[in-house]
Amino acid sequence: TKFSSIDEIIKPKFAGKKVKLRGWVHRQRSGKKIAFIVLRDGTDTLQCTAKKSELSEEKYEEFCNIKYESSIIVFGTLQKDDRAPNGYELHVEDFELIHLADTFPITKDQSDAFLLDIRHLWIRSQKLTQTSRVKAKLMEGARNFFKKEGYLEVWPPIITGSSCEGGSTLFQLDYFGKPAFLSQSAQLYLETLIFAHKKVFALTPSFRAEKSRTTRHLAEYWHLEAEAAFLDLNGIMDFEDGLVTAMIHKVARDEKKSLIALGRNPKDLLAIKAPFERIKYDEAVDIINSKGVKIEWGEDFGTGHERALTKDLKSPIHVTHFPREIKAFYMKTIDGKTAECNDLLAPEGFGEIIGSSQREEDIKIITENLLRDGSDIADYEWYLDLRRFGSVQHSGFGLGIERVMRWICNLEHIRDTIAYPRVMNRNTP
Ligand code: 4AD
Ligand code: MG
User: What Rg do the C-alpha atoms of the chain give, in angstroms?
Assistant: First the structure.
């Protein structure tokens, strides 16, 4: 007989059928006459029950001594069992150990620090398995949406010669004896690519040397960015609303079990509908102050400000038109005072998930902004060429995948949204 996978057999038509499975021992419990393992095979888990009366004495003994995380082949009959977590159990008739594991180091109630040190084993846990599945579905929803909207997926470089988001969070490296940087954002390259493809998107790792320890910053995160020609600020916000809705609805439909286990009701995500509310920075500043958190006009938002603004909300909200002095050199200004930009903030206090803007077309203003920031114009000559050869109105954004994950998986710390978190004090395993 062929091997089956758990997710395909826990269905009524397989009840009473003989199946062969292989995987890892997730839990184990044994008594005098009956013993259980929970088998995990990468698609789901299944309780497998062995009775002493139905195996040889020797085999039963072996079954009782299987350690956690051993790899195993089990053979038996699938039975409906309403007490089992997914409604089925396997009645074991035979089994074969592939590898008897050493004593597994992870037991109950271990410290966060230990679990991070042993991350390569902890990623087998239910919680991290569920978050990985949710993340894959988020991206599937995103790719479907980009395809439907006619965006081409592209692959910008990660090693770069110029900064996109300011020097203070740049990781520098030695590039054959000369300095180079790890990308903070693919934006400037995506801007070049719209002249070839009109509408593009990319998923790339982005790097930020964040010197503060927070629950929402990683040094390496996955950045989903898009850029489109002939689109203004309102147009890009409409697109973002459609994209975020498509992503979270995909997860709500296809990963219900994982979401519920993580403490998020899929129905609440399905209730979120585009378009999202849009308010200007000025109004946001008033609201934040009215919630008792102090902020002055001209200050950028910190975690506490965004929490005050979003903690009572159920849907994401856009904050537009920040003062241009605190924003990046590439953002367009119409009134000379504010930028044609928006941050999309997740509800329930989670805060920023997207940074976005219409881009400045005027080469003079961009050059002034670069000088204001103390940048070397020579490093940006290639970028300025975009304003010399067929310049058009265009807009784009960057979405932090782990920021969205933290919100929809209801996680306190961003490190639990990624298999191998890179933060200030950790780059292993
Ligand atoms: O707001 P940011 O810095 O904007 C940009 O990088 C633009 N160049 C994007 C663009 O227009 N193409 O970053 C965009 C998003 C943030 O909204 C946040 O979701 C995420 O990237 N992000 C981080 N996620 C995790 N850890 C960090 N240290 C992050 N920094 C930014
Ligand atoms: Mg930002």
Answer: 26
61 in the same domain as 147: no
Q: pLDDT of 193-202, one tens digit each?
A: 999 999 999 9
* Whether 154 and 92 share a structural domain: no
Q: Spell out the alpha helix ranges (H) of 118-232.
A: 119-122, 126-148, 187-197
In the predicted model, what is the mean pLDDT of residues 241-264?
Answer: 98
Dump pLDDT digits (tens) for 283-322: 999 999 999 999 999 999 999 999 999 999 999 999 999 9
Q: CATH number of the domain that 388 lies in? A: 3.30.930.10
Based on the domain organization, do 74 and 171 belong to the same domain?
no
State the residue range of the domain holding 65. Answer: 6-99
Q: Which ligand is nearest to the CA of 328?
A: 1
**146 and 277, same domain (yes or no):** yes
pLDDT band at 75 (very low <50, low <70, confident <90, very high): very high
Report how far ligand 1's centroid is from the alpha carbon of 229 (Å). Answer: 21
Tokens of 287: 């609201």
How far, in Å, CA of 327 to CA of 92, rounded?
63
Which atom of ligand 1 is closest in space to residue 219's alpha carbon? 28
List, in sequence order, every beta strand (DSSP E) within 292-427.
Answer: 317-320, 341-346, 351-358, 394-400
- Ligand 1 and 359: CB distance under 6 A: no
Q: Output the CA 214–ligand 1 centroid distance in Å.
A: 15
Chosen domain end from 99, 129, 163? 99
Taking the CA of residue 353 as reference, the ligand 1 atom at the shortest distance is 19
In a domain, 104, yes or no: no
Whether the pLDDT of residue 85 is over 90: the answer is: no
Decide if 109 is inside a domain. Answer: no
Closest approach atom of ligand 1 to CA 344: 17
**Best substitution site from 138, 162, 165, 422 to test ligand 1's pocket, by max atoms within 8 Å of Cβ?**
165
pTM: predicted TM-score of the whole model, two decimal places: 0.97
